[in-house]
Amino acid sequence: MNRPSEPTLPLSDRGLAYGDGLFETVLVRDGTPLLWSEHLARLLKGCRVLDLPPPRTEALASALAGAGPGLGVLKLVYTRGSGGRGYAPPASSDPRLEAVWSSFAPDQQRWAAGVRVRRCRLRLARQPVLAGIKHLARLENVLARAEWRDPDIAEGLLEDDRGQLVEATAMNVFFLARGAEQVSTPPLDQCGVAGTLRAALLEQGAVVEAPLLADELSSCEAVWLGNSVQGVWPVARLDDSEGQPQHGWELNDVHRAFQHRAHRLLGYAGAD
Predict the structure, then answer these.
(1) Nearest to 223 by CA among 250, 200, 196
(2) Which is catalytic among the residues 38, 98, 167, 185?
(3) Which helix (H) or strand (E) element contains residue 113?
(4) What region does 243 belong to: left with phi over 0, alpha with psi -120 to 50, or beta?
(5) Which of 15, 46, 91, 237 could hold 133 in an S-S bridge, CB 3.0 to 4.6 Å?
(6) What's the predicted TM-score (pTM) here?
(7) Which pLDDT value is given to residue 84?
(8) Active-site hit among 98, 134, 155, 159
(9) Tell me, what's the pLDDT at 6?
(10) Per-residue pLDDT averaged across 21-49, rounded?
């Protein structure tokens, strides 16, 4: 395995050629990976789906050992490796694990003031076999993120071809439906990435899965976006796919309570 500061990926690698692989983006604080059990569980599930041998324990330990001091992000890329022409995978795989470390500081302004988001025009294709895992073929997310360049828009919301809300381009969605007592998150059994922060919150009972039409977002009492690196951003303004205002939320104690509960899992300051 290559050291985190020296990633290499040959043109023959199937991850580069076909997206035949997986990745994890892990928040690391002073050498300790946050939500590591959830990251590892998703990585191993992805290996089962793609029929990849799981990464060796010592290779993962070496990757984690390459993390620097303080707060940072370790990106792990695990591919089937090189071999075979065409789509058919080789009979015997020699997987490749790459790791890249970078220092990181969360955007606390977005924590405090909330964010502006927009609905994307792109619709996610439903593919239950790949739903939930973090595979390398992320062109849908790339195209969705290319829909806007306004820096005031923090994220884009994605729905499927039936209008069901799924996720944001790089974050999961959480919402409190009007009159509900429990925060919900859309089910991801057809498409989307099942985030590790989302998994931890589901395990704690802090959220439940519930479907929501994207057209019903404006009726929710509160909406948040979250992942295991950025933490949780309250949504303050929702725009349509043309960038026109659709709805706004005044941030209140409900927003903060859920945010703080999630941030405790990540060890972020102000999460008491």
Answers:
(1) 250
(2) 167
(3) helix 108-113
(4) left
(5) 46
(6) 0.95
(7) 74
(8) 134
(9) 55
(10) 98
Pairing between β-strand 153-160 and β-strand 231-239 as defined by DSSP bridges? unpaired
Type of residue at 253: D
Q: Is the predicted pLDDT of residue 270 greater than 90, yes or no?
A: no
What tokens does 26 get?
A: 């892990």
| Residues 128/47, Cβ–Cβ less than 8 Å | no
Residue 167 annotated as catalytic: yes
Count of helix runs (H) and strand runs (E) in the chain: 7, 13
Q: Indicate the burial class of 28 (C-beta count within 10 angstroms; 0-12, 13-18, 19 or more).
A: buried
| Residue 23 to residue 136: CA distance in whole angstroms | 7
Over residues 235-267, the pLDDT tens digits come to: 999 999 999 999 999 999 999 999 999 999 999
Could you tell me which of 143, 27, 125 has the C-alpha nearest to residue 76? 27
Question: Which tokens go with 40?
Answer: 């590892």
**147 included as an active-site residue:** no
